[in-house]
Amino acid sequence: MEWKTMGYRIFLAGGSGAIGRRLIPQLVATGHRVTATTRRAEKAEKLRAIGASPVVIDVFDAGGLLAAVAAARPEVVIHQLTDLPAGLDPNRMGESIIGNARVRDEGTRNLVEAATSAGARRLIAQSIAWAYAPGPEPHAETDPLDSGAEGGRGISVGGVIALERQVLEGSSMTGIVLRYGHLYGPGTGTEIAADPAVHVDAAAYAALLAVERGAPGPFNIAEPNGHVATDKAVSELGWRPDFSLAV
Predict the structure, then answer these.
(1) Alpha-carbon distance 228 to 220, whole Å?
(2) Surface-to-core class of residue 45, CB atoms within 10 Å of its CB (0-12 exposed, 13-18 middle, 19+ buried)
(3) Burial level of 202, CB count in 10 A (0-12/13-18/19+)?
(4) Which of 17, 40, 63, 240 would you label with 233, given CA atoms 20 to 30 Å apart?
(5) b/e burial code for range 149-184 (CB count within 10 A of at least 16 → b)
């Protein structure tokens, strides 16, 4: 995609999430026009306050999502949807793992169908950097995901595999998957995270860069660590792991 003076029309699914709230100001500052979703009506004004046009919609409402994306006429769709408890509350994570996997599978399918129908040309989606199968580290993006995982990890990785297949193989759009490290920073509920880790601002910055740059495929998005290699994101997207917003 080439730079346009007025930016792109962007449909951001998951605008009120931790990454979404840090991404919208970056998109708006770069000249893009953002339609952002939330499931909760009380969050709509917060999205408007940071520069987005809010839409209250549930990703599992396939018909409503189809209409919302069609109305936005996006050139680029960004998938930052998750279903995780505030602060990753361990008492709620067991139930949330199932819901989050459903978002990644069924929710992604609905979003891909809506984006395709609306004529979007580029699809950027959130994934995770700790779903690789056991093997030599650091893992490159070409390493296999852990399809043989069991239990809660099996549910999570199964959702990730479903999401990535639909984004990278299931449509005619240019699909980019951002495999984020463990998030920390504003809105995440923590100021530290285990490796591979990434600050929420730097995670959002990767999505901003992917609007304009990057060939189809996955990118590890994490601070320097021994578990996953991040040189692809640095060289192809121009990503900086130390990026942060001023506020």
Answers:
(1) 7
(2) exposed
(3) buried
(4) 17
(5) beeeeebbbbbbbbbbebbbebeebbbbbbbbbbbb
Does residue 181 come out as left (phi exceeding 0), alpha (psi in the -120 to 50 range) or beta?
A: beta
- Write down the residue that tokens 């930016």 correspond to: 7
Q: Which two tokens stand for residue 160?
A: 């990730």
The rounded radius of gyration (Å) of the Cα atoms in the chain is 17
Answer whether 26's CB lies under 8 Å from 208's CB: yes
The CA-atom distances, in angstroms, between 44 and each of 4, 16, 60, 73, 199 are 28, 8, 18, 20, 25
Model-level pTM greater than 0.85? yes
CA 174 remoteness from chain centre: 15
- Please state, in angstroms and rounded to a whole number, the distance separating the CA atoms of residues 64 and 13: 13
Matching residue, tokens 């952002």: 36
CB 74 within 8 A of CB 11: yes
Tokens of 227: 């578990």
Question: Which candidate, 7, 156, 152, 177, places its Cα nearest to that of 78?
Answer: 177
pLDDT in tens, 170-206: 888 999 999 999 999 999 999 999 999 999 999 999 9
State whether residue 128 is helix, strand or coil. strand
